[in-house]
Amino acid sequence: MFHVNNFTNNDDIRILDSMGAFTVVEYLRDLSVVPATAQTAYYCNAMNVRKRQLICDVSKSPITLQGGAMQWTVGNVNATTGVKGVGDLFNKAIRGSVTGESAIKPEYTGEGILVTEPTYHHLLLLDLDTWNNSIVLDDGLFLACEASLAHKAVMRSNISSAVAGGEGLFNLGITGKGVLCLESPSPKEELIEVELSNDVLKVDGNMAIAWSGSLEFTVERSGKSLIGSAASGEGLVNVYRGTGRVLLAPVAK
Q1: How many Å apart are CA 172 and CA 183, to the nearest integer?
Q2: Residue 215 pLDDT > 90, yes or no?
């Protein structure tokens, strides 16, 4: 049996969101300052630059976490590699090498809670049931998910243009039923959601943070010809084609 005091019941901490096994908290003020950092802390608070943490209730669901993200646990919480044999280890290593994510994401099971390291990113909770149980993430945004969700490497449809556009060839795909947490560069209130029904979205820049797994993702010239692309001044753009949803940040991350 354990009790945690002066955490979520602290008047300097508020709960931003809660879904499935996850709760997102935010520190309203940074009180752990010294005179040399007080001015920076004051203006950070005024501009919504605040520390946030993810609380994971492992008793509700086993949790898969980005490597190195755990700060503390309490209760009977056990960490495993989440590897289910040699073949699974090989697949995870390959997926990690091509997506840029950590190859081994620890899995936490048992009865208790886990709290992640503080971050100044915005923590976004997504229920994959609302994404038709399949989502693809931009590089480096994954923080945690319920262990019922599966991970896979999703390859771009056209390799040559991805290389020419300076984009990676693979993204991390998440499938199944459960809740996912992303480290977003923008708050949920500023994210633009575009719903496509057999249509096309073209984005000049690395602004899409997540999109439906049903969409075809390519990197293409903005115009039908090299001359047209040069005339528009855009060059190569990220193209999302088909039926599904795209989450856009207002600025490139």
Answers
A1: 14
A2: yes
